[in-house]
Amino acid sequence: MFTSKEQIEASLWAAGVSAPRAAALAAKAKPCVRLETALLADGESIPLGATRIGGHPDLPAGMGWPYRKPYPDAADRIAETEATIENIRAGNEAALAKASPYASSREKVEAQAKHLIDLIAPVAEPRPLAFVAQIDLVGIQAVQSLDPDLPVSGRLLFFYDAQQQPWGINPGDSAGWSVLYDITDPAGLERLTPPRSPGPSGAATGFAALRCHGRAEWSPVPEDQVLLAIPDRSDPDRARLADWYGDRYGKLLDRRDWHAHQAGGHPDQIQDGQPPGKRGEDWVLLMQIDSDDRISMTWGDSGMLYVWIRRDDLRARQFDRAWVVLQSL
Fold first, then answer.
1. pLDDT above 60 (res 280)
2. Secondary structure (3-state) at 2
3. Which residues contact 17 (CB under 8 A, 6 or more apart)?
């Protein structure tokens, strides 16, 4: 990881990238705060208002737990699942007829169908969101100043539909998360206990807590933005930059030892961490929350959640307009 723009520039030089391009790319790096996390010791607690991943959120006294509304495209989501189930049934019947070793018993297929139905049924009903992260903006920006438009007081709280896990691809996905900005003094906060979702697939709407320690870093421009700006495939810098980013991506795939939770900066992309179809707008990354097997926090297949906001909405403090993208391995 990089602790300065100069370190990024030196790394690019070492990879053989030309000096002018290395300097230009390093200049576009953004400050971020990497959230080093640890499980709580027995009897340990996290102060009210402090940064954490998982655990219980600190909300103004009397404020209720955030719930999502039914997904506006719930009928389409249910129909898609029903079509998937029919395809599974048809495929298994064909496999049984051929005595294929890949065939399952009809009982197993129906159990799988029931599981899928139980999972998708809640999209048509209100459900409590899972608490994912709380960012103390004072504490984080004491480690390192982030984007100049980010508030320097208060805290951000991020809730997400951990059961349905919307990808941020469809407009209706926005029902599946809530980003709150709160400036209540810690003395006026109350730690809420997560409710349980109703129904056969009910689960606690939260995770075990991780305490966080911030570490100042600088994040380089994402690979796709860089390579798209070099359309000439014969440009020697293009291949060198692809190798440089490939090395970073390899480390990202092996990230289970360090967990890439982060506030601010550029994203650690698994695929494309930016809101889809929105490249022409100025978006600011508020946080990225990694999968974390220590607390059974898994996004897709060991993926990440990226929480974005348009700059104009950030300046207006309209955090309810934040957009979440899930990217998976």
1. no
2. strand
3. 25, 237, 240, 241, 244
Question: For residues 163 and 77, what is the distance between their CA atoms, to the nearest angstrom?
Answer: 14
Q: Which whole number is the average pLDDT over 153-171?
A: 96
Residue 296, SS3 per DSSP: coil
231-257 tens-digit pLDDT: 888 999 999 999 999 888 777 766 655
Side chain identity at residue 235, one-letter code: D
SS3 86: helix
Q: What is the largest CA-CA distance in the chain?
A: 68
Rounded CA separation 209/139 (Å): 18
Exposure b/e, 269-284, CB count within 10 A at least 16 = b: bbebbbbeeeeeeebb
> In the numeric block, which tokens belong to residue 267?
């994203």
**Residue 105 · residue 113 · CB < 8 Å:** no
Cα separation values, 117 from 77, 88, 219, 275, 279, Å: 11, 13, 42, 29, 36
Judge contact between 185 and 170, C-beta under 8 A. Answer: no
